Amino acid sequence: TLCPAFLPGEPNPALLATPFENITSQPEDDNLTNIQEYDVVIIGGGTAGCVLASRLSENPNLQVLLIEAGKSDLAILNSRIPACHSRLIASAVDYNLKTVPETNMHNREIRWPQGKILGGCSSINALVYHRGAAADYDEWAEKYGAHGWAWKDLEPYFRKAENFTPSSNWPIDKKGHGRDGPWQISYPSYTSSILPPFISGCNSIGIPIVPDINHGQTGMIGVTRVQTFIDSDGRRSSAATAYLTEDVCRRKNLKISVGMTVTRIITHTAADGKPVARGVELASGPHVPIRYRVKATRDIIVACGAVHTPQLLKLSGIGSESELTRHDIKVVKDLPGVGANLQDHLFIPLTVNSIKGTGVGYTRKPRVPLKWFIRWLLHGSGMLGSNLIQVAAWLRSYDDPEMANKIEDLTSSPYEPDIEIITVVSSARNIGQTRATNHLTDYWSLLQILLRPSSIGSIAVADNNPFTPPVICANYFNTEHDPFKKSCDIVKSSGAFVSWELPKRADELSDDEILEYLKDSANTCYHPCGTAKIGAEDDGGVVDTSLSVYGVPHLRVCDASVMPRIISGHTCAPIIAIAEKLADMLKGEYGTTDKRN
Ligand SMILES: Cc1cc2nc3c(=O)[nH]c(=O)nc-3n(C[C@H](O)[C@H](O)[C@H](O)COP(=O)(O)OP(=O)(O)OC[C@H]3O[C@@H](n4cnc5c(N)ncnc54)[C@H](O)[C@@H]3O)c2cc1C
């Protein structure tokens, strides 16, 4: 763990791609003759990209290249230690992006972490394993035209990905889970002192205890212990560690390029005058004069995540004509849906002081005590082997008659939630910014996550330079939801509550004061999606149901961008299932068609 003998990925691009000097990166200069070629080129070795590379290269006749801008997650200790996930935010493996000043949030620029590392966000995220409500996927198919992506279509792929290890102290019916997949799912052995009072607080106000929220049951409502992607050695099971094992990386037909950014997708004009995706161009950094190119004889799959996928498509001439022209990018395909339909979850922090012995402040010591580290290193156990998000409750605010009159029901079915409440072990206002100020205090933080926002934002390009960060406008908060009071009820009923810390007088605030507090303190819950959605082209769709980009044959997208509507939960597991399904679809397709030339 400390000094891994094996690190996936080839850092020298000259061994995998053909170098070009002094090219302009303009479509006129799109020479692809006599260059290194592969059957499939996957751009972005993140959550979806690792799954695709691993599954597609199971066919030894298929030459696969995976290109990742970051380096291996095995070399980043904080990525391996589950409890250290928040230390990865604003670190060298984060793109360190932020939104534009959000007008409905007191003009705050919200920090948006995105993993620049093999495994992508699955290597830096909070390790919560959650599938979302079955009705969310049925809604994709029925309401948004994503036929073939309903719950019944995706459920087998959730199982295929998973190797679930049950826990003796939280028994569930294992039938709903997979046992043979590469992704390690478990309950961490360590449980914090927050668990019993949170569950009893929920129970006292009528929230049922549900053994397993990931069962695909109708009505994903209740409080439960959180399942995580942590393996039996207490290490993070990212998409990279799960899918790009040493055996997989030794396959002769799989090449993995690390530390290289794809700067554009090269399209050629076919005999019918239409564009066809043929190759990609990559570079190690903004000031390096050498670019590299590879050709794809079958497909190019963009898996750069919901922020960078639309950016790359636009830099390659695929996007709204007016935006591309404004930035001097030659239009390949006018596709206004690219970068539109951005959706995200917001969380609202609530921090309370709790009775002595029930708080979690001790977990936030600025320096991890050596004995904790040794315990984790040798046995994978103790506090460091846990993601420290231990319990969560999913609720419907509409069932409260007072709320039902105030807000529109945006859930995917009358039985599914619009709110999730999780516990975290920090002063929630500080997440991603500074360490908790007083690590000795007994406190809890609860995050209320708004699961069904109607706010729609966008990803735009700032200019035509692939190394300029994209312009993120989340456009938060054009809906009123009020999960806040429910959290106050939970903590007051928990038997461990002492006083309000943030905000003070939390349960006495008027609606207007709560709204002001939300604008001041709400934060991204790190689930951006929808920016290259499945759907009809005239309805803003970017890809069809085979995840092929409209009007550009042999170009596909597979990542959080393709979700037509944000789900009522965490996004990592659904993306892994989507990638598993696309890999299966492509294996079937490639098995029966002739190689493209
Ligand atoms: C801090 C944080 C906490 C989260 N917590 C959870 C959680 O607990 N549970 C959960 O389910 N979800 C969580 N999420 C969300 C979840 O992790 C993401 O939705 C999901 O992993 C995104 O997968 P993806 O494949 O779409 O993109 P990513 O995993 O981000 O992969 C994109 C990859 O593409 C690479 N890339 C981008 N542009 C280029 C380019 N031009 N050339 C080459 N490579 C490129 C990136 O470096 C990256 O590796 C969290 C996210 C964050 C950021």
Please give a structural write-up:
The protein folds into 2 domains: 1-184 and 229-343 and 527-589, 3-Layer(bba) Sandwich (FAD/NAD(P)-binding domain), CATH 3.50.50; 188-225 and 346-450 and 478-521, 2-Layer Sandwich (Glucose Oxidase, domain 3), CATH 3.30.560. Helices cover 22% and strands 20% of the residues. The protein has helices at 47-56, 77-80, 134-144, 151-161, 195-204, 239-243, 246-249, 305-315, 321-326, 370-379, 401-406, 484-492, 511-521, 572-592; strands spanning 18-21, 37-43, 64-68, 97-98, 111-112, 128-129, 162-165, 183-186, 222-225, 227-228, 254-258, 261-269, 275-283, 290-302, 318-319, 333-334, 346-354, 391-395, 419-424, 443-450, 458-460, 471-473, 497-502, 523-524, 555-557. The strands form 7 sheets. Strands 1, 2, 3, 11, 12, 13, 14 and 25 form an 8-stranded mixed beta sheet that branches. Strands 9, 17, 18, 19, 20, 23 and 24 form a 7-stranded antiparallel beta sheet that branches. Strand 12 and strand 13 form a beta hairpin. Helix 4 (151-161) packs across helix 14 (572-592). The radius of gyration is 23 Å and the shape is globular. The model is unreliable at 431-437 (pLDDT under 50). Flavin-adenine dinucleotide binds next to helix 1, strand 3, strand 12, helix 8 and helix 14.
